[in-house]
């Protein structure tokens, strides 16, 4: 996938457009922040109860566990744990046949939607991530990193998480070529994502083999990995290995998406007249 | 557009069959008709619209099976999180697993019933925004019934089933001395709880007339409320419990009656007869939500596009 400067400008414009599109719905954004904050408060109390009962669970002290809660709320929409980025739209375009127009465009289908999803993610990180995190930090004792480098390292991990999340959802969206109504697949996908991303409970707390498996799956790149980077669990060479884990899954899944797209566009006749 | 057409095909049927009894005079805005007749009209419209959506869902059976299963599994995940917690500890906030499962099952079943019945209310904001609410206003059926039945999602039976299974497990696993009152309290709790959650859904819908884009705020009280009730009140701060008791009285869904069944005191020191008040609270909530809905509908101005 060679990207020239002209191409780069195109995808940057798509990303910027997507950012502006999400930025238009201000009341919806405020409502989302409110809801994330309410959930954050509820989860905080359950985590306090859990870590009171068993201090040091999963290698976190209580402040770190609470930081994990608020990171989860801050990243929920950014890494689209429960879906809700572009995939509904792409599935609708596949169902109606509009995707035929997308395939005619002088732009790559996957890169086009990836650019749009990155624009969305940056907006949601700023608009829906910062406020709940600030609220959590003001109301509860959190373990926020003291140095700028850790903040930067965590931001990189979040961006890699967004790409992995995109690659997974792109595969989900393509299923509509065969099923037409992709709602079932989308739901099963967000279930897996909710459970294995660490959104429900840190994957470090999962017992035995389940924990081992969960930490090796791509979904852990969405919440668990960025959270651990933020909490300073990965430093130096370990940090690079962590990035490699995320980037590795991103490459594998993006490649799978391209292969599936090639099969879909060759075999499937688009609906419509 | 296809969606509107499908509505419209169903549209003429009610007037045709009633021979003008309900007639178009019951213009959706709550004309001072006999309330009982209006309620009957509303229920009938609700039944017909939801039946239509069930038929339409069944056109994609594979997808229905998957989404129903997904709905079941999604709610089961909540409980999986609780099980994972209990794989590490023996008690949470002083409550053992069967007790938490009891609170969880009661909340999930009550919420599941409300969600199945009128969970589509959060789509109202979208209808206000794109102007399709106008179509509902000119039909000879109460708007509330139409909005509540809009996109009726049978897959939500998955949530009810899951909640009921956990409640069943808890009732078997709990070692309680049952009294007739406690037995009576279980169905009472589920029905009143569902009604309280429905009131929250309707009030949330009314709020969306004002803040069309803010449907997510509603989630904080519906899904958020459900999550809150899945844990014992001893886990939460006093202020949060106060808010859930007196401000948005979801504590009456399962905490107050549930703690009576479990033989535990309520954290705010409420008298034990408070465990039997959920039906009254439910009626009051529904009445208030109805008033809020009416005010919201009256304040509605079409987008005009």
UniProtKB/TrEMBL annotation, chain A:
Top-rank lineage group of the source organism: Bacteria
Pfam families: ABC2_membrane_6 (PF06182)
Entry keyword set: Membrane, Transmembrane, Transmembrane helix
Transmembrane segments: 27-48, 68-86, 125-144, 150-171, 178-201, 240-260
Record InterPro entries: ABC-2_transporter-like
Annotated PANTHER family: INTEGRAL MEMBRANE PROTEIN, SLR1174 PROTEIN-RELATED
Protein name: ABC transporter permease
Species for this entry: Streptomyces aurantiacus JA 4570
TrEMBL record, chain B:
Signal peptide start and end residues: none
Region Disordered: start-end pairs: 1-35
Top-level taxon of origin: Bacteria
Keywords, in A-Z order: Membrane, Transmembrane, Transmembrane helix
Keyword Transport assigned: no
Annotated TM spans: 62-89, 101-119, 160-178, 184-211, 240-261, 273-293
Family matches, as InterPro entries: ABC-2_transporter-like
Basic and acidic residues composition bias: residue spans: 1-10
Name this polypeptide is given: Transporter
